[in-house]
Design goal:
This protein has 262 residues and is α+β, with helices and mostly antiparallel strands. 47% of the residues lie in helices and 22% in strands. The protein contains 6 helices and 9 strands; from the N terminus they run ββααβαββαββααββ. It binds adenosine-5'-diphosphate.
């Protein structure tokens, strides 16, 4: 990986003496680069459904002007494309709101088990349509962490929804909340689907990274879900731990550190 420096020289007192100063610009360059890539990717992702909308509008105004059957079919596709844009914008807004809050520590008290139960209740109809059954195992005592309820709901929603969508073939998803010896709280989402090959795992939380773009599109993905998860967890000083075995399924775990009692 290359490094970038700004080098300045200043003459000292005209005696042939110079001061050289260096400023490390590597990090700033990297951030710039990421921002540019992000804008390019986001624009590209928006342009695809938009191009398709324009295409269908032109077709309806032109060649399909008198073909009601075709029009009806095209309108269905147009609605899908518009919904896709709308999901993309929602996710982009979530990310930018999270970035604005990145340096503010969350402060509420949240029961992770209750959050999982809430999310599973909301996702059960969707899981049912996919033929997936979701189980939940929680400890007897509430598993309390310091956090933002809505954000943690979003985390579990993204993980459980992914497990149902991508692990559909496994027919079941197991969600469990556990308290570790030292006081850490861990929530895991296990699916029995195709799993994820090792080389993809470290990149899953990158914006717009998808193992298989077509399958993600077909499953109404935006490629931003796990990027949002990572942002939220960083703010909570929690970690995402992914283990996956191709052919056996994946486990996405969220680990909240033990409260610092010092
Ligand atoms: P998307 O909106 O495409 O679902 P995510 O950021 O949520 O985006 O996930 C990124 C990619 O990680 C997905 O496109 C998919 O390829 C892969 N992925 C996520 N969860 C799973 C899972 N449980 N099993 C297999 N692949 C997964």
């Amino acid at each position: 990986s290359e490094r970038w420096f700004e080098v300045r020289t200043a003459a000292v007192g005209g005696e042939g003496l110079y001061i050289l100063s260096f400023r490390d610009l590597t990090e700033a360059r990297r951030m710039d680069r990421m921002r540019t890539d992000f804008v390019a990717n986001a624009s590209h992702e928006m342009r695809t459904p938009l191009a398709s909308l324009v295409g269908f509008i032109e077709t309806i105004q032109g060649p399909a002007r008198n073909d009601l059957k075709a029009q009806e079919r095209f309108l269905g596709i147009m609605l899908d494309q518009a919904s896709r844009m709308s999901r993309l914008i929602d996710d982009l807004l979530s990310l930018s709101r999270l970035e604005m809050r990145a340096h503010v520590a969350p402060s509420g008290e949240v029961d992770v088990g209750a959050i999982c139960r809430h999310v599973i209740d909301a996702l059960t109809p969707m899981a049912g349509e996919l033929g997936v059954e979701i189980s939940l195992q929680v400890p007897d005592a509430p598993a309390i962490v310091t956090g933002d309820r809505d954000e943690l709901i979003q985390v579990m929603e993204n993980l459980i929804e992914n497990a149902c969508k991508y692990g559909q073939s496994g027919r079941k998803v197991d969600v469990a909340v556990k308290m570790e010896e030292g006081g850490a709280i861990v929530a895991t989402v296990r699916d029995y689907g195709p799993g994820i090959e090792r080389q993809h795992v470290p990149r899953l939380t990158e914006r717009f990274y998808r193992v298989d773009v077509d399958s993600s599109r077909a499953k109404k993905g935006t490629g931003l879900g796990l990027a949002i998860v990572k942002h939220i967890l960083t703010r909570h000083r929690a970690r995402l731990v992914v283990t996956s075995e191709p052919g056996q399924g994946s486990t996405f775990g969220v680990r909240f550190p033990a409260p610092n009692l010092g």
